Amino acid sequence: MPTIPPPKLGDLRTSPKRARRERLVRTVLFGAALVSVLISAAIVISLVTQAWEFIVTVDWSAVWSTGWFPRNNIFDIKTLLISSLIVTAIAMAVAAPLGVGAAIYLSEYASRRARAILKPALEVLAGIPSVVLGFFALMWVSPNVVQNLFSSANRGNLMAAGIGVGVLTIPLVASISEDAMKSVPNTLREAATGLGARKVTISIRVVLPAAVSGLAAAFIVAISRALGETMVVFLAGGAGDTALYTHNPTDGGLTMTAAMASLASGTDNVVGAGLAFPSLYFVGLVLFMLTFGLNIIAARFVRRFREAY
Amino acid sequence: MALSTLSSAGKAGNSVDSQTLSGTMDWRGMLFRVLLLSSLVLTLLIIVVLLVDVVSDGSGVLTGRLSDFLHGTLRSRSSDEKLGLFQGLRGSVWIAIFVIGLAFPIGIGAAIYLEEYASANRLTHFIELNIRNLAGVPSVVYGLLGLTLFLNLFKRFTQGDTLVSAGITLAILVLPVVIITSSEAIRAVPNALREGGYGVGATQWEVIRFHVLPYAAPGILTGTLLSLSRAIGEAAPLILIGAITGRLGSSPGLADVGALREKFTALPIVITSWVQKSNGAQDDGVEGMGFAAHAAAAIVVLLVFVLLLNSVAIYLRNRFEKQRG
C-alpha cells in the first residue's frame, strides 16, 4: 500500500487569486458602507457653514419681527415655527387616534383574514406620494371640510395642510404602534383572561400600558415626520413665498419646509438676493436639529420596549 | 404561531363569557370594537375618497386628450393644446435609472458589509446609528445637500440644475432605506446556510454570492422596489435643486429635457406647478380641462407607477413570508 503523504499547510491555503478577490470584495463593500457616513458629514457641513454665514451677518431684530419676507431681509423664524407647530398639532390630532385605533384593531381583534386585507391597504396609503396628498388637501379637504366649517377660511390654509399631513402619517403611527403591541408577550393576555378580564379590559388595561413606550416612539416619529413634510404644506398651506405672523389655522401660512420650497422656487435668482440664500440653510439647520433630536428620543423609546420583552 | 395561540385564547374567553354572562350584553366591549373598526374604516375611506376625487377630476383630460396629454409639454396656459407631461415622464424615468444604478448597488453593498463582514466594534455601531439617523432626515434637507454639492461645489461635473444632479440627490435620499431593508433581508438568512457553504470549502464571498444573496433576494427586491417608488414620488428636494435659477417655478415651458446635461423636470414637479397655477389668470382652459384637471390626470399617471411598484413589492414580501413561515 502506497502511503499518502500528510498534506502540507500550503496545500490547504486558498489560491492567491481567490484570496486577492476576497480582499478586494471586502474593501469595496466597506467603501459602500462608508458612503453613508460621508453623506451625513456632507449634510452637517453644508448646513452649518451656510447657516453660519447667515447667523453672523443677519441683523437679529429681523429674525424676531413680524413675518417671513426673506427677499426684504425680514426673517421672522417664529412665523415659520408657529405654522409648523400648528400643522404638526393638527396632523397628530388626525393621525394619533386613527393610527392607534387601527393598530389596536389589527393587533388584538382582527382575524388572520381581515389582517391580510387591511394591512396591505394601509401600506397602499403609506406609498401615496406627498404631492398627491397636497393636491387632495387643497382641492378636496379645504373646500369640503375646512371652508364648510369656517366660511372665512382661505383657499389654502394651515388646517387643510395639517389634515393632509395627518393622513400621510396614519400608516406610520399604525405600523409602529402595532409592532409595539404585538411584542407584548401573550402570557400577559392569557393571565388577564384567566382572571376573567374581557377583551376591552385586556386591550386598554394590559396591552396598551405594556406597549406605552412603543406608542410614545410612534408619536414622536410621526411628529418628526410631520415637521419635515414639505409638499402637502407647500401646496395646501396657502401662502406664497412670504407670510405675516399668524396663529389662526384657517389662514394661509408658511411652515419651515414650505418656506424653503417657495424660496427656492421663486422667480428671482436666489443666489443674488442678499441673505435669502443662506437663510434657506438657516431654516434647514433649525429643521434638521429639531427632527434629529426627536428621532434620537424616539430611538430611546424603541430600545426600551425591545429590552422589556 | 403567536397568532394561533392568541385566537384560541380569545375563543376560550368567549365561551366562558357566554356561559357566565348569558343575558348581559358587553356594551363597553361592543362600543370599543366599533370605535376601533371605525378608525380603520375612516382611514380606508379617506384613501377611497382621495382616489375617487383624483380620478374624477382627471377623467376629462384622461379620456378627452390622453395621447396629446402624454406627448405634450409644459405650457404656460391651460388652454394650450400642446399641454402635457412628456418631459415629466422622461425626467422621472431618468431619476429611476439613477436610483437603480447608484442607490441599489451602494445600498446593497453597504448592507452586505454591515451584516456579513463587519465585526461588532465601535465603527460598525457608529455606521449603523448614522444610517438610522439619515433615514429620518426630512427630504427638503437632502435638497439643500444637493444644492450645495451639485449646484455649487461640483458644478463643473453636473452642470448645475440638471438631471444628473436630480438623479444623484434622490439616489442619496433613498440610500438609507435601501441599506436598512436589505440588511433586514440578509439578517433573516439562516446561519445553517452559511455554515453549509463554509463546510464545502467556499470562501466568505462565495458563501455570500451563492448562498446568502439568492436566499435574501426577494426581501432585498421588496425594499428596493419600495425605495424606487419613494424616489419617483418625491418632489421637495427637486424643487430645491431645480429652482435655483428660477426656471422651474416660473417658466417650466422652457424646461426642455433633451439630455442629462440640461434643465429637468419630473412627474411630481409637473403636478406641483400645475396645482400652483390652478385658480390663476393663466388657467383659461375649458371647464374641467384646466390646470387642476391636468394636475389630477398627472397624479393618476404617477399613482399608476407608484402603486404598481408598491403592490408588487408587498405581494412579493407576503408570498415569501408565507413560504418560509
Number of strands of chain B: 0
Radius of gyration of chain B: 25 Å
Question: Termini distance of chain A?
Answer: 63 Å
* Structural domain count of chain A: 2
End-to-end distance of chain B: 10 Å
Q: What is the CATH topology classification name of the largest domain in chain A?
A: MetI-like fold
Runs of chain A with pLDDT <50, length 5+?
A: none
Reported for the largest beta sheet of chain A, the result is: 3 strands, antiparallel
CATH architecture of the domain at 89-261 in chain B: Orthogonal Bundle
How would you describe the overall organization of this protein?
The complex is a heterodimer of chains A (309) and B (325). With 309 residues, chain A is mainly α. Chain A folds into two domains: 49 residues; 248 residues, MetI-like fold, CATH 1.10.3720. Chain A contains twelve helices and three strands; from the N terminus they run H-H-E-E-H-H-H-H-H-H-H-H-E-H-H. A three-stranded antiparallel beta sheet of chain A has the order 2-1-3. In chain A, helix 3 runs parallel beside helix 6 and helix 11 packs antiparallel against helix 12. Chain A starts with 8 loop residues before the first helix and ends with a helix. Chain B has 325 residues and is an all-alpha fold. Chain B has a domain of 173 residues: MetI-like fold. Chain B contains 14 helices and no strands. In chain B, helix 13 packs antiparallel against helix 14. The longest helix of chain B is centred in the N-terminal third of the chain and has 38 residues. The radius of gyration of chain B is 25 Å and the shape is globular. The interface between A and B is large, with 100 and 106 residues.
